[in-house]
Specification:
It is a single chain. By secondary structure, this protein is an alpha+beta fold. The chain folds into 4 domains: 2-41, no CATH class; 44-282, Thrombin, subunit H; 289-375, Roll (Pdz3 Domain); 392-486, Pdz3 Domain (Roll), CATH 2.30.42.10. 18% of the residues lie in helices and 34% in strands. The chain contains 10 helices and 29 strands. It has helices at 2-22, 44-50, 127-130, 266-279, 296-302, 320-324, 343-351, 405-411, 430-433, 453-460; strands at residues 25-28, 37-40, 54-64, 105-116, 122-125, 135-139, 145-147, 149-154, 159-163, 174-175, 186-191, 199-210, 220-223, 235-237, 242-250, 261-265, 289-293, 310-315, 331-335, 338-339, 358-365, 368-375, 392-393, 398-402, 420-425, 441-445, 448-449, 468-475, 479-486. The strands form 5 sheets. The chain has a 7-stranded antiparallel beta sheet. The longest helix is centred in the first third of the chain and has 21 residues, at 2-22. It starts with a helix and ends with a strand.
Length: 487
């Protein structure tokens, strides 16, 4: 009898679930505002609402000399071999057209996607879709075609803004909030993969803050929504129909989707889009510091209490950081009230801060918090020259030399890097035992900056036999390190 009652309850529950699914609804509780809401069991209504704003983009560009050249819409974010292998996935969409002469030019066609952001006719896409294009054609979902003009491009974030004729018939997409996006959230990609217009695919947000080596401001949303060549520049939208990303790259070794696609967060894109719209170009803020992520050892060395923030490894003379009083060894923990936890986050925040704006920068220095005010400028490249110094040997078993610009370049450091470079290490010496390597640059000894071999010798003369010395080193491709050497 008891088993019959349990079975009856099971049937009732299944019928109720069936009714919900039959109504096209699912109950979920993983919404961004932590409240229960209904999500469609299919994406029909969402697709019908968003697709009219998504456009197909065709470009024609002149490739000079040598023969036809194919350039993929998606660069390989992991470098090396093309993600499409040796096969051209757009074969049939493009081809050479001879213009005569021994070094013939060819007309190369390419395909991509974009989306309308207002009724004035502005359309967002990727830089690599329209870069160096002689002609840009835009086709709306309804089939109407326009000639588009270039408004502005930003290669560093792979964003571009183009424009077609304004019309009240244009249906724009609304921008969402990528900062509030959660891993596991449903998202939809719309575009023209392999020229198949108005293709809709769905998936989830697989990760946030991905760095794939595409540029200095990498901060990608990773998704498993199916993205392929031709989706580039199309929108990634949330379940409210708002844009939360611009599809820009895939990882693939065979040319097709393998469930790893990347989109530019809309919160990063919006400021760039506004600058392109108003100025036609992007101006980024420049602080004038060398930085690296802080390790627990460096946090202890510099007195960063919560072991968070970004370490200043170098301050460029005459730049905004120098003028505001920021020093090497400071730990930047916030800019403009926004907390900073990584070098990438600091670079992005500074780049998106208005040039000339008086910006508060919160730092830790020797364990104490300070707020300094910086007026950011545009980057001004300069390299300081350093006079060569004779070689010197100290009681650590190290042969040293003042770092020169040419040697700095050879070793992988900035030309204006300051410090004393290790050019030779005696086998079995205290320096070798401590892990010091040839090519390391000594920056400080017991928290005292050093820039010449003589200064190293002077600091070592203060150390008694058997004592332990703390040395701050910079190592190419590894950043700052703290080593302890017993002498």
């Amino acid at each position: 009898m008891k088993q019959a009652i349990n079975f009856t309850r099971y049937i009732v529950v299944m019928v109720m679930v069936g009714l919900l699914l039959g109504a096209g609804l699912q109950v979920v509780t993983a919404s961004e505002d932590s409240t229960t809401r209904m999500i469609p069991a299919n994406f029909s209504e969402l697709a019908e609402k968003a697709r009219p704003a998504v456009v197909n983009i065709r470009t024609v560009k002149t490739v000079k000399g040598g023969g036809p050249v194919f350039r993929h819409f998606f660069g390989n974010p992991f470098g090396g071999k093309s993600p499409f292998g040796d096969k051209n996935p757009f074969e049939g969409f493009s081809g050479p057209h001879s213009e005569g002469g021994p070094s013939r030019n060819f007309k190369q066609q390419s395909l991509g996607s974009g989306f309308i952001i207002d009724r004035e006719g502005y359309i967002v896409t990727n830089n690599h879709v329209v870069e160096n294009a002689d002609q840009i054609k835009v086709k709306l979902a309804m089939g109407k075609e326009f000639d588009a003009k270039m408004v502005g491009r930003d290669p560093k974030t792979d964003l571009a803004l183009i424009k077609i004729e304004a019309s009240d018939d244009l249906i724009p997409l609304e921008m969402g909030d990528s900062d509030g996006l959660r891993v596991g959230t449903w998202v939809v990609a719309i575009g023209s993969p392999f020229g198949l217009e108005q293709t809709v695919t769905a998936g989830i947000v697989s990760a946030k803050g991905r760095t794939i080596g595409a540029g200095p401001y990498d901060d990608f949303i990773q998704t498993d929504a199916s993205i392929n060549p031709g989706n580039s520049g199309g929108p990634l939208i949330n379940m409210k129909g708002k844009v939360i990303g611009i599809n820009t790259a895939i990882f693939s070794q065979g040319g097709g989707n393998v469930g790893i696609g990347f989109a530019i967060p809309v919160n990063l894109a919006q400021g760039i889009i506004e600058q392109l719209k108003n100025e036609g170009q992007v101006t980024r803020g420049w602080l004038g510091v060398g930085i690296q992520d802080i390790t627990p050892e460096l946090a202890e060395y510099y007195g960063a209490k919560d072991k968070k923030g970004v370490l200043v490894t170098q301050v460029f003379r005459g730049d905004p950081a120098d003028k505001s009083g920021i020093k090497t060894g400071d730990v930047i923990v916030a800019v403009g009230g926004k907390k900073i936890s990584s070098s990438r986050e600091l670079s992005s925040t500074i780049a998106n801060t208005t040039v000339g704006e008086r910006t508060p920068v919160s730092i830790f220095r020797a364990g104490e918090g300070k707020i300094l005010y910086v007026e950011l400028t545009k980057r001004s490249d300069s390299a300081a020259s350093v006079k060569p110094q004779p070689q010197s040997t100290d009681n650590l078993g190290l042969k040293l030399k003042e770092l020169e610009p040419e040697m700095a370049r050879h070793l992988g450091y900035p030309e204006d890097e300051k410090g004393v470079v290790v050019i030779q290490i005696e086998p079995g010496s205290n320096g070798e035992i401590a892990g010091i390597q040839q090519g390391d640059v000594i920056k400080e000894i017991n928290r005292r900056p050093v820039s010449t071999p003589k200064e190293v010798t002077k600091q070592m003369e203060k150390v008694k036999s058997g004592d332990t010395v703390q040395m701050l080193l910079k190592r190419a491709n590894a950043g700052l390190l703290v080593v302890e050497v017993t002498v």
